[in-house]
Amino acid sequence: MNKKEVGISITSEIIRVVVLIIILFLLIKYSKVAYSYGRGIFNQTAVSQGEGEYFNVTILEGESVAELADALEGAGLIEDAFLFRIQEYFSEYHGLEQPGVYTLSTAMTPDEMLAIICANADTSDSDSSEVESNISDDADIEDNSTGTGAAEGEDMDSDNAETTEGEGEAEGSEGEDLE
Q1: What φ, ψ does residue 156 adopt, rounded to 5°?
Q2: pLDDT at 67 over 70
Q3: Residue 107 — left, alpha, or beta (φ > 0 → left; ψ -120 to 50 → alpha)?
Q4: What is the tens place of the pLDDT at every residue in 69-101?
Q5: Closest C-alpha to 100, from 149, 56, 146, 53
Q6: What's the maximum distance between 2 C-alpha atoms anywhere in the chain?
Q7: Among candidates 97, 102, 54, which has minimal Cα distance to 77?
Q8: Which of 26, 39, 96, 107 could join 52 in a cystine, given CB atoms 3.0 to 4.6 angstroms apart?
Q9: What phi-psi label fits residue 95: left (phi over 0), alpha (psi between -120 and 50 degrees) or beta?
Q10: pTM
Q11: Each residue of 7-62: pLDDT tens digit?
Q12: How far, in Å, CA of 168 to CA of 154, rounded?
């Protein structure tokens, strides 16, 4: 072997080792990402603990899960829109989202939000494999962080406990900030 052949073989071995190291780092990086998503799907957590902030979310007829996820992420109700889409796909609520206005909290898990959004779904007529995804940019989100989070026509005091009809009127008008 001459010096040229020895130099070429050493260079090729160095390149081979560098490529293997790069593959190893990529494998580790994407394994962590896969683990994180897998854990997030089955170990759902809320964005905040305690009472959280309340937001009114409007879901329009024909709105896709991707649009819903983007709207929830934009409101700060979920941390990752793509993860929410995966969670919805593997949940019992897949394809059962109903149009309407919903009051959701940052203290709710994605599964709890889906339970509220899909509460009036008729599961006997739904075929989740035939869900259509229509694209529209009409997702409305109303910030209700200073509101009570009460359902329409229902009063709640500052401790988030239900009050009897008429009690809340003496403390202030509906929607008024009580801080």
Answers
A1: -135, 140
A2: yes
A3: alpha
A4: 998 998 889 988 999 999 889 888 888 888 989
A5: 56
A6: 98
A7: 54
A8: 107
A9: left
A10: 0.56
A11: 889 999 999 999 999 999 999 999 999 898 888 888 888 888 888 888 888 888 88
A12: 10
Tokens of 84: 């929410």
User: Would you state the structure tokens that stand for residue 159, as one six-digit string?
Assistant: 């401790």
Q: At 6, which amino acid appears?
A: V
> Can you read off the two tokens belonging to residue 21?
């190291």
